[in-house]
Amino acid sequence: MRCSVVIPSYNRINVLPRAVASVLEQDVSDIELIIVDDDSTDATRDWLTTLSDPRVTIILLPQRRGVSAARNIGINAARAPLVAFLDSDDSYLPHRLSGPLAAFDRDASLVCTLSSANKEAPGKLYTSPLPDVTLAPQAFEWALYCDLIGVDGSGITVRTAAARAVGGFCEHMKLTEDREFLIRLAPYGAGRLLPEVTWEKSWTTDSLSNDWKNAGHALLAYVEQRPELATRFRKLGSYLASKIVVSDLRRGDFGTALTNWEVFRRAGLLRGGLARVWRDHREVRNYRRAMSNRDALSKLAGAPAQWD
């Protein structure tokens, strides 16, 4: 068996069959699919009883634990040396797994691959390709911190042993947990970005990633796990905080913007007056724009020394 795929699911009977079918229809057959049902109350469990493919393992949780806990249970149950993830509202294209498997076969230094996707948004469908590059551990870690590369759970394939060694996904986080997981994973090896589109991300209104109202709380939870964003990488932490405040203002949600501003200041993410916050925001924004292309990433060594 070459790869285990973990699908966490909660009350997604309307989309889960599509996700499951997309895994079972891969162009590689020596895989297993682990479906972790997070105590669904819809018709999911009845549907799961109809699955007869021997490659499928079903784990039924007796009480709701959350998506990260469900993924971690799947990681611990995985029997293959590699584990990939698929959110229940997304789907794989038939070659989603063959690309990462080939990359791991070619390069023993890899700990992770990230796969490109077609993404759906209200009123549009667009392609989100990753640059064709391999990042050494320090460069991979910094690219994740600084959000120079896109990270989606359904695009991640990692070495199972390394995923277990870092403790899996943080179960206290509801957003950015996939990026934080990979930051802890990065010291274990290089990250390979695969530009070929091999999966599709769907838009659902109840997706956790669309919970903009709680973006401030999510950032605080992220900083709790990665406190260096308020110290060593202070400018980056300020940028992430001010970006949320600006987003609140653009949506006309002035109350949330003010609340987030005050909370971020108390957390040490926003320091000084508006001029300093804007200066930090602009510096990080310009750096990210300059460093997100393939040529810049291929030369990336790590974090700039002056960002403390």
Structural description of this entry:
There is one protein chain. With about 300 residues, this protein is of the alpha/beta class. The chain folds into 2 domains: about 5-200, Spore Coat Polysaccharide Biosynthesis Protein SpsA, Chain A (Alpha-Beta Complex); about 210-300. It is about 40% helix and about 20% strand. It has 12 helices and 10 strands. It has helices spanning about 15-25, 45-50, 65-75, 100-105, 135-145, 160-165, 175-185, 215-225, 235-250, 255-265, 275-290, 295-300; strands spanning about 5-10, 30-35, 55-60, 80-85, 90, 110-120, 125-130, 135, 155-160, 190-200. Strands 1, 2, 3, 4, 5, 6, 7, 8, 9 and 10 form a 10-stranded mixed beta sheet that branches. Helix 2 (about 45-50) links the parallel strand 2 (about 30-35) and strand 3. It is globular, with a radius of gyration of 20 Å. It starts with a strand and ends in a 10-residue tail after the last helix. The model has no long low-confidence stretch (mean pLDDT about 95).
Average pLDDT rating: 93
Strand content: 15-25%
What count of domains describes the coordinates? Answer: 2
Q: Class by helix and strand content?
A: alpha/beta
Characterize the overall form. Answer: globular
The value of Rg in angstroms is 20 Å
Q: Which architecture of the largest domain does the CATH hierarchy give at level 2? A: Alpha-Beta Complex
Q: What is the CATH homology-level superfamily of the largest domain? A: Spore Coat Polysaccharide Biosynthesis Protein SpsA, Chain A
Name of the level-1 CATH class of the largest domain: Alpha Beta
| CATH topology descriptor of the largest domain | Spore Coat Polysaccharide Biosynthesis Protein SpsA, Chain A
Count of DSSP strands: 10
Terminal-residue CA separation? 45 Å
Q: Helical region count?
A: 12
The succession of helices and strands, N to C, reads EHEHEHEEHEEEHEHHEHHHHH
